[in-house]
From TrEMBL:
The keyword Ubl conjugation applies. This is Cullin family profile domain-containing protein. Transmembrane segments: none annotated. Residues 414-666 form the Cullin family profile domain. Belongs to the cullin family. It comes from the Eukaryota. Residues 334-362 are annotated as: Disordered. The lineage of its organism: Eukaryota, Fungi, Dikarya, Ascomycota, Pezizomycotina. GO terms for molecular function: ubiquitin protein ligase binding. Keywords: Isopeptide bond, Ubl conjugation.
Amino acid sequence: MLETAGLNGADVDFHTTWGILETAFREIHTKNASALSFEELYRNAYKIVLKKKGEELYNRVAEFEEQWLGTNVRTLATTNERREAGEKFLRSLKQAWEDHQVCMGMLTDVLMYMDRVYCTDHRQPSIFAKSMGLFRDQILRTPVRQGAPTLLEILTRIILDQIQMDRDGESIDQFLIKSNVYMLEGLYQSNQEVEDEKLYLKSFELEFLRQSAAFYRDEGERLLKESDAGTYCRHAKRRIDEENDRCRLTLSESTTPKIQRVVEDELIRHKMKGLIEMESGVAFMVDNDKLHELSLVFDLEARVDPRKPELTKAMQKLITEMGTNINNAAIAASEAAPQNEPAPAEEQPEDGKSKAAPAKGTNQQTIAALKWVEEILTLKDRFDNICKNSFASDQTVSTAINRSMADVINAFSRGSEYISLFIDDNMKRGIKDKSEAEVDVTLEKSIVVLRYLSDKDIFETYYKKHLCKRLLLKKSQSVEVEKQMISRMKIELGNSFTLKLEAMFKDMTLSEELSNGYRNHIAGMNEDADSKRAELSIKVLTSMTWPLEAFRSGIDGGEQEGGGRRTRIIYPPSILRVKEGFERFYSQKYSGRKLTWQNNMGDSDLKARFPNSRHAVHDVNCSTYAMLILLLFNELPTNASATLEEIEARTNIPLDDLKRNLQSLAVAPKTRFLVKEPMSREINAGDRFRWNGEYNSKFLRIKVGVVSAGNKVEGDRERKETEKKNNDSRGFAIEAAVVRIMKQRKELAHAQLLTETITQLSHQFRPDVNLIKKRLESLIEREYLERVEEAPVPSYRYLA
C-alpha cells in the first residue's frame, strides 16, 4: 500500500525531489556518478512527471544545463583558447562536447519518462535535443566577452587555418578536426533540427568554400604566370584529389562535390582559356607531340564541361592555321610559271624491258598538287593520332577536327583537281611494286581526303578526265586497282557518281572485243593485197561518257581551237586504207552510228631504219601525229627537207599539236629522228626539218614521248572552261531536283523549296542560293512552275 501511494505521487515534494536530482546531475557532470542509484533517480523524475510537474522539471533541467555550460564548460574552453591555440583548443572543445554528450546520455536515461510523456504530449524537444541546443547557444554562439568573437567563429578560423597548413604541406591532426566536424554536424541552426540547417552546413562549410575559392583563384593566377601548362594540369589534378581525401579524412564527405566544384571552377573552368593559350599551351604541345600533356588538358576540361569548348576551339584553330599555311604554299607554287620540257623518251633494250629515262623538268604545279594532298593527309593523320592517344577518341573533339579538316580542304579552290591528280599519280606509279595491303592503304587515303570534299561534282569532272587519259594512254599500273577504287567511290558517294566511270571500263572491254573481231575479219578476207596491211587496235568510246576535251586537241572533222575552220587530217594511203576498212566493218556491225576519229589520242608502232645505227631496224612507239610526220619523210627524196608550214599543209595536224610532236622528234636528244634547222628548243615558223640519217641508238625499242602528254594542273583558261561546264551541269541538277520536289509536293513555300533543294543536292555540291533562284525563274518561264499569288508567303505551284 505504501509503495503504491508513492508511485501515484501523492506524497511527492517537488523542491525536495528536484534537489536530489540537481545534486545527482552535478555529480554526473563532474564525473562522480559511480555512487549514484539511477533507478532511484529515475523514480524521482517519474514521480514529478506523474504529479503533473513535468513542465517545471523540464524547465529546471534546461536552466541547470544552461547555467552549467555557461559557468563551467565555456570558462574551461575559453581559458584553453586564450592560453593555447590551434590543436589544443580543438582538443579542449572536443573533450567538452564529448563530456556533454555522455552526461546528457545519463540524464536522458534518468528523465526517460519525462521525455516519453511530457515532451511528447506538449510537443517539446527531448531533453537531449534541448541540451544540444543549449550547448550550441551557451558554448558556440555566446561571445567570451563583449566585442569578442564567438567560439564558433574561433573554431571555424582554427579549422580553416589547419586546412591551409595541410594545403601548404604541413602535418595536422586530421582525427581531431574530424571530431570537431562531427560536433558541428550534430548541431542545428535552430531547435527544429531541420536536416539542411546543420551548423556544419550553415556556419562552417559556407566559409570553407568561400575561402577555398579565393585561395584557388589566387593560386591559379599565380601558376599561369609561373609554371608551364603541363605542370599546371598535374597540379590541378593533384589539388582535386587532395580535396577529395581531405573531405573523406578531415571534414565531411557531403562537402566533396561542393569543394570539387570550387576547385574545378577556379583552377579549370575559369582558367582553361588562359591555360590553353599559354606559351607552353596546346599549340606548343601539338607542335612538340606532347601527347600525355594534351591528355591532361583534355581530362581537366572534360571534368567541367563534356563539350570541351575551349579545347575544341583551340584544336580547330590550329588545324585552320596549319591547313591555311598548306593552302597558301600550294597557291604560291601553282602561280609559278609552268615548265614545258620535251617529254623524256623511254628506250627499251633488246630484252624488251622498259628503261625509263630520268625525269626532267617535272611540272612544278603538278608536284605542288601532289604535295598539297600529302600534307593534308599528314595533317589529318597527326590530329587523328592526337585524338586517339590524347583524347580517347572523344566523339565531340573528333567531330570538330573533321569539321575543321573539311573547312580547310573546301577553302582551297583547287582541292578537287589536286585530289584527282593525287589518285592519278598513285594509279600511274604510286602503287607500282606495292603489296595488296599497301595498295589498300593508298586507296583508303584517297577516299579519306575525298570524303571531306563538298563539291564532289567538280572532283568527278577531273577524275573522269584523268581516268580517260590513264586508260587511253595505257598509263595505269593495274586495271583491277582502278576498278577497286571505283567500287570504294561507289560505296562512299553512291551509284550515280560512278555510273559514267563504270561505263568507261565497259567501253574498253567492248573495244577489245571489237578489235579482235576486226582482226579476224581481215584474216578471213584472204586477199594478197591486205596481207601486209597495217594492224589496227581500236578504242570505240561513247561520246557522252568520255571527257575527250581532256586531250585539248584537234578532232578529225571537228572544230579546231582558235581556228574557226574545219580541218580533216590527211592520212598516207596505207593508213587511210585501214581507216576506211574499219569504218566499213563497223557500219556493217552497227548501223546508224557515226565514228569520229580522235587522232590526238592514238599511238602507233613503226619500224624505222637508220643506216648508221647499231640495229638495222628499230621498233618505235609514238603518237598518231608523230607517225604521220615520220611517214611524210618516206615520201620525200633522201636529204630533202620540209618547213613547218609544209608539214602542216601536207598533214593538216593542228599547229599546237604539230609543234609538240616536232619537239619530241627533233629536239629531244634520245628521239632525235629529225634534224631541225636552225637548232633551238622552240619550234618557230620557217624552221626546216629533214630525216636524221646519222641517228644511232643502242636500244632496239624506243618510245617517243610527247610534251604535255600526261595529266597536269589546269591553267587559268582551262580552269575557267571546267568551271563553266560544271556550273551548267549544276544548273541542270538544280532544275531536276526542284522538279522532283514540286512534282511530289505540288505546292510549296519559297523558303521551304530552297531548303529541300539544298538538302537534296548537298551530297553532290554546295548549291548557291542565287543559282537556285535563277533556275527557279527559268522553270517559271518554261511553265514548269508558277507563283501562287494568293499565298501569304512567296510560294510556287507545280504545273503538270
